[in-house]
Specification:
By secondary structure, the chain is an alpha/beta fold. Helix content is 52%, strand content 13%. The protein is built from ten helices and six strands. Strand 3, helix 3 and strand 4 form a beta-alpha-beta unit. The termini are far apart. 40% of the residues are buried.
């Protein structure tokens, strides 16, 4: 099985690579942000892409959503410290097949990889049954009205970037970034940056 790893902590990535290698799994690439994870997944077509939830430029959930569209044969696993219902539900709705808590034993990631490759959904112990039931019942995430680009703008602004910096990061004009930001604030019904940050944390776009 060919694995792609995405996390913005180099030492953590190296540790994951060593763990997977000991279990006979081939790590074909390691990247540091969600946008690069999407690009490399599209190029390399790994069997599984393991995504950290909180990454710069594009978080793991948004990256998983794009991978699900662009490389549907690749399974995605989210690796995170958070077991909050909002994070789990958002991940499942994005097409994530595995939700692994970093607090669990490292070997759990190997189990998750093998399970998702068998076509199962893997959830760490501690993930609420209620949120799984909500997903199976068709419950949607609270920010499902946002487009992928709007989610990226929301994340970048909530992380402290100016609109100009967000535009540069995404490779769009400042005018386009401002238009996205305006639509995000309208959809989320907020009127200032502080409220936008609080909403981003609550929706799981960024972590506190």
């Amino acid at each position: 099985m060919r694995i792609l790893l995405a996390d913005d902590h180099t030492m953590f990535l190296d540790g994951l690579e060593a763990l997977l290698a000991r279990s006979g799994l081939d790590v074909v690439a390691k990247v540091a942000d969600g946008r690069e994870a999407v690009q490399m997944t599209r190029e390399l077509a790994p069997d599984v892409t393991v995504l950290d939830l909180a990454m710069p430029v594009m978080n793991g959930v948004t990256a998983a959503r794009q991978i699900h569209k662009l490389a549907p044969e690749t399974q995605t696993i989210l690796l995170t410290m958070f077991e909050d219902d909002a994070y789990v539900l958002e991940a499942l709705q994005a097409g994530v097949r595995g939700y692994v808590l970093k607090a669990q034993a490292p070997e759990e990631l190997v189990s998750a990889v093998r399970e998702v490759m068998r076509g199962s959904v893997y959830l760490s112990p501690g993930v609420s049954k209620a949120v799984v039931d909500a997903y199976l019942g068709g419950g949607g995430p609270p920010n499902d009205a946002l487009s992928d680009r709007e989610r990226q703008i929301l994340q970048l602004i909530a992380e402290g970037n100016t609109t100009k910096e967000a535009a540069r990061t995404l490779g769009v004009s400042v005018k386009t970034a401002e238009a996205h930001r305006t639509r995000v604030m309208q959809k989320l019904e907020v009127h200032d940056t502080a409220s936008l940050v609080r909403r981003a944390i609550r929706l799981g776009v960024i972590q506190p």
